[in-house]
Design goal:
Blueprint: H1 4-28, H2 36-41, H3 43-47, H4 49-52, H5 57-79, H6 83-104
Length: 110
Amino acid sequence: MTSRKFLIPLIASLIVTPIALLLGIGSAGAGHGDYRLAMVLFPYTMLSTTIFDSITAPFILLAIVQFPLYGVILGYASEKGRFVSVWILLCLVHCVASTGMFLVASDNFS
């Protein structure tokens, strides 16, 4: 049976995912927005635009599973008693990716 320590971060990430997706899509404004919020929430997907000049299907899938993956990682970390240190690491990696996105944003996505 899966422990409560694992399930809490996973369930939280599943709750956050649709909210983040709606905010990111809203930020894009059907192509007429500024994408800033999408860049902050989904930096890995948005970084792909520097190579492909658009958001491609595999990276849309990455955006959909990004927060649930964070939840799985944090769930395992929680079971091992390392939740805080892994959470800090995930936040740092995410922030670095977001900052990188703003540094390399093309005219189409800024």
